[in-house]
Design goal:
Layout (H helix, E strand, L loop, with lengths): L19 E6 L4 H16 L3 E6 L29 H4 L4 H15 L5 H10 L3 E5 H7 L12 E3 L1 H7 L4 E4 L1
Parallel strand pairs: 1-2, 1-5, 2-3, 3-4
């Protein structure tokens, strides 16, 4: 089958010029950490200004104590294709986490702390939610050392003005 769609043309200005992506990372399990990190890395690779905002359980991704130990739970996850009665057995979360980490490593995708380093090295911005910090009694010292700051929702709304915003 021949593709008959017209070939797009581009101006002299790159498509990424003036674009901004903001990603709200609200979940802290292993399988939910990677979508935001991968999208941020891809956007930065295209020259798009990128901001990640970590809130609620997304704090697990930037918490020094948990960021390297994220888990994957198959319980209640229909995409795991495992019956809930089986996925809830002792040891299943550890087994599922080991399997997922092995698959991620086989694809040469970095672990979460290294991925955060890559994003920062590429010019990405990492923001922690003030309310979540207060709720969890965490300070900036408890977080990944390259966080740009702990900010409130209104500050993030200002940062995200005009951006494509994704909620993960």
């Amino acid at each position: 089958m021949t593709d008959t769609r017209p070939i797009p043309t581009f101006d002299d200005e790159p498509a990424s010029a003036g674009r901004k992506l903001c990603i709200i990372c609200s979940k802290g399990s292993l399988d939910m950490a990677y979508p935001g990190l991968i999208l941020a890395n891809a956007a930065l690779g295209e020259g798009i200004e990128t901001h990640l905002f970590f809130t609620f359980w997304g704090y697990e991704i930037i918490n020094k104590k948990t960021m390297a130990k994220l888990q994957f739970s198959p319980v209640g996850n229909p995409a795991s294709h495992m019956p809930t009665a089986v996925s809830g057995l002792p040891g299943m979360q550890s087994m599922a986490t080991r399997m997922m980490k092995a698959q991620i490593e086989a694809l040469d995708v970095p672990a979460v702390p290294e991925f955060l380093d890559m994003i920062k090295d590429a010019g990405g911005h990492l923001w922690a939610c003030r309310m979540s910090a207060d709720m969890m009694k965490l300070t900036q010292d408890d977080l990944y050392e390259r966080i740009d700051g702990v900010i409130g929702a209104t500050e993030f709304i200002e940062i995200s003005a005009g951006a494509q915003t994704l909620f993960v």
